């Protein structure tokens, strides 16, 4: 499989383009599951935005929901949406954000996305909050008070496999630690899903970008988006098209997403 986009047709992957990805996502939006800070993957995200900019009707509103900015960074992101000063955004992020991404990899997406009319939106809870939830486990009020749904069994098994290579962990201490980490992941996914759905009610076309571990196989973020859509009386047929970045080392399972972006490590 050479570098580029592929759409799933039946049980096969068919070479495609960013424009065809956007057309397939019309009325649904896109979730792009990325490898962080890979230039080729960031370029693929940019190509999706460019295709949407070319094909969305005049006056259509667009948004890009980021994992990379937590809700704590809303002020600096809104300032960037208004003024477009990438140097100010990068400086503020480096000084105040706990998220730890290198925005240089995403500078083109941020700057040109804004020029195309995409409103940048923060998607994740702050990293320190996720850490505190991991420490509290089920005693966290997010779960104790029923505010956030617990992870599905499929999401739990996938998370364990990503971390350890197996869904079964025999060591009790390690299993409990992973369980607490999974709860932190669930709060991230739920917060992101609610933000994406909210953006979908406010904009005509929404793209979301997050790490592929948060969304592949339609687990984590996508399954929570479906649930949030039901809560907002939105049909599940509007669930976003799922595009997964895949390196040459990854399995290309037919059910990993609706589309792939194949790339080689740089």
Describe the structure.
The chain is of the alpha/beta class. 46% of the residues lie in helices and 19% in strands. It has ten helices and eight strands. The chain has helices spanning 18-24, 39-55, 74-83, 86-96, 107-115, 127-136, 141-144, 153-164, 172-202, 221-231; strands spanning 4-9, 12-16, 30-34, 62-70, 118-124, 205-211, 241-247, 259-263. It has an eight-stranded mixed sheet, with helices on both faces. A hairpin with a 2-residue loop joins β1 (4-9) and β2 (12-16). The longest helix is centred in the last third of the chain and has 31 residues, at 172-202.
Q: How many DSSP E strands?
A: 8
Structural class designation: alpha/beta
Widest sheet: strand ordering = 2-1-8-7-3-6-4-5
Write the H/E string, N to C. Answer: EEHEHEHHHEHHHHEHEE
How would you state the average pLDDT, rounded? Answer: 92
Q: Could you tell me the strand content as a percent range?
A: 15-25%
How many H/I helices? Answer: 10
């Amino acid at each position: 499989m050479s570098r580029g986009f592929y759409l799933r047709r039946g049980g096969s992957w068919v070479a495609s383009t960013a424009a065809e990805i956007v057309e397939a996502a019309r009325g649904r939006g896109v979730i792009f599951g990325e490898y962080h800070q890979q230039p080729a993957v960031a370029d693929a995200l940019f190509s999706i935005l460019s295709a949407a900019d070319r094909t969305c009707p005049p006056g259509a509103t667009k948004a890009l929901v980021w994992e990379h900015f937590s809700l704590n960074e809303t002020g600096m992101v809104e300032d960037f949406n208004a003024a477009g000063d990438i140097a100010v955004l990068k400086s503020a992020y480096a000084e105040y954000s706990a998220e730890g991404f290198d925005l240089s990899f995403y500078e083109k997406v941020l700057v040109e996305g804004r020029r195309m009319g995409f409103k940048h939106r923060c998607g994740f809870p702050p990293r320190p909050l996720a850490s505190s939830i991991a420490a509290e486990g089920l005693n966290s009020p997010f779960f104790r008070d029923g505010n956030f749904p617990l992870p599905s069994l499929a999401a739990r098994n996938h998370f364990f496999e990503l971390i350890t290579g197996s869904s079964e962990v025999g060591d009790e201490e390690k299993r409990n630690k992973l369980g607490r980490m999974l709860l932190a992941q669930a709060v991230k996914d739920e917060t992101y899903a609610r933000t994406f759905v909210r953006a979908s009610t406010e904009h005509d076309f929404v793209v979301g970008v997050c790490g592929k571990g948060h969304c592949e196989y339609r687990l984590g973020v996508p399954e929570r988006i479906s649930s949030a859509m039901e809560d907002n009386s939105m049909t599940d047929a509007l669930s976003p098209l799922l595009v997964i970045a895949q390196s040459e080392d990854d399995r290309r399972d037919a059910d990993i997403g609706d589309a792939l972006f194949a790339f080689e490590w740089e």
